[in-house]
Amino acid sequence: MSNLVNSNDEFVKKFGNWDYYFEQVKTNPDITEPDKAEILKGFQALREIMGDAWFEETARSHYPIFHRLANLVSYSQLSVARVGLRLQALKSAKNFNKLRRRMMSRDTYSASEAELEVASYFAKAGFSIEFYPAVGSKEADLLLIRDNMEYYVEVTVIGDSVEERRAFETLEGIHWPYFAEDIIMHGRVLKILSTPHLEELKKRIANVVEEVKNTHEGREVVDPGVVQLFICPRDNTDALKVWQKRKGISGLEGPRIEVNEISRIRHRLDAENSQLPEDKPGLIIVYGRSLREQFFEPNFYEKLASQLEETVYGHRNLILGAIVTYGSDLLTHPLKEGRNYILRHRQYGSRIGDDVLIIKNRFSKFAVDEDIIQALLND
Q1: Measured between alpha carbons, how far is 132 from 140 in angstroms, rounded to an integer?
Q2: What pTM did the predictor assign?
Q3: Which end of the chain is more exposed for a tag (fewer CB within 10 A), N or C?
């Protein structure tokens, strides 16, 4: 046990230190100078507002933001930097310190980062922001005020299902022990593994990793129906490239799972509306990061709007419901509009973006404010 503790302490000491990432960004030739300036500015803001002790905890407890930061590529670093820049821009908002406290906790981090992101869109559009306004004995996530108009907002993140969490635990159990090693592991994990099966596989992989280190050559790990992996030194990837081309594999893919995400979003829209007042216009923004169909079906969002619009229509206080997902390259036009929906693809760089589907409630008892819609469509 003491060896594990010491190992984790050494990991946190290295990778839970802001200075390590500042240096990585400054010396990375693949990051453009404008991106470097934005990343470093955002990192500094995040460090000043959240503190070094919090950052150490993100490394120790594997916060979602730490996984993005540890991915040392520009688009991932930029996503972290924008958190700092948004915090800096909104630190004078009412109840900001409550938002900061929520971001301190791993359990509420993802939800509070989504609230921060949505708040930043409306702040840029000229709305005054209040975090966690009272709604009777409850509270909403945001209150937007402009020109004597008030809009209440619920922001929710559709978290991983039980199956998704188990799939992540399988994938993390296989590759995480070698995150700081000078090796690369690519391939596919084909199914979710039980604890004893995962432990058996980890021992086999550990032996192969040692062999790779000793021979300085790549090795394959194959268990039919379980895994297809290739492990090689970081500075000797020729065999990996050949293997990837032959297998049609790029990166490390986790087990595929089947979850009814549409039903989960419907239930979440109903549940979140209970936090909003009936006598004020309301919005619900759902972060559906677990959706995947948009990457395979060109007309997926039209179908999604049709499947969700009746749920939105059923709440007369809502002026709209919005779904934010990972961006799909299948969207050939950045902006698309149907009878009761607007779809926008937002691109933040060569490899990062999102899709925003806004479903207007034509049965709302309040007018649908176009400024609200534009604030959500802009980045």
Answers
A1: 5
A2: 0.76
A3: N
Q: How far apart are CA 22 and CA 237, in angstroms?
A: 27
C-alpha–C-alpha distance, residues 148 and 180, integer Å: 53
Averaged pLDDT in 10-residue chunks for the chain of 379 residues? 51 89 91 92 97 93 87 84 97 98 94 96 96 96 95 89 73 82 90 91 94 95 94 93 89 76 91 96 92 82 94 97 88 83 80 86 93 89
Dmax (CA) of the chain: 71
Distance of CA 47 to the CA centre of its chain: 20
Place of tokens 């990991």: 11
Between CA 350 and CA 293, with CA 253 as vertex, the angle to 5 degrees is 65
**C-beta of residue 231 within 8 angstroms of C-beta of residue 219:** yes
Helix (H, G, I), strand (E, B) or coil at 155: strand
Give the N- to C-terminal CA distance of the chain in Å, as an integer. Answer: 47
If one counts every other C-beta atom within 10 angstroms of the C-beta of residue 79, the result is 19
Q: Looking at residue 160, what is its pLDDT? A: 61
Q: Which amino acid is at 182?
A: D
Domain ranges (residues) in the chain: 2-91, 111-161+259-377, 162-253
What is the DSSP secondary-structure string of 330-371?
Answer: T--SSEEE-SSEEEEEEE-SSS-EEEEEEEE-TT-SS---HH
Q: Which residues contact 48 (CB under 8 A, 6 or more apart)?
A: none
- Amino acid at position 352, single letter: I
What is the Cα–Cα distance from 106 to 129, expressed in whole angstroms?
Answer: 24
With beta carbons less than 8 A apart as the criterion, state whether 163 and 147 touch: no
pLDDT of residue 364: 97
Query: What is the residue whose two structure tokens read 């409306």?
Result: 122
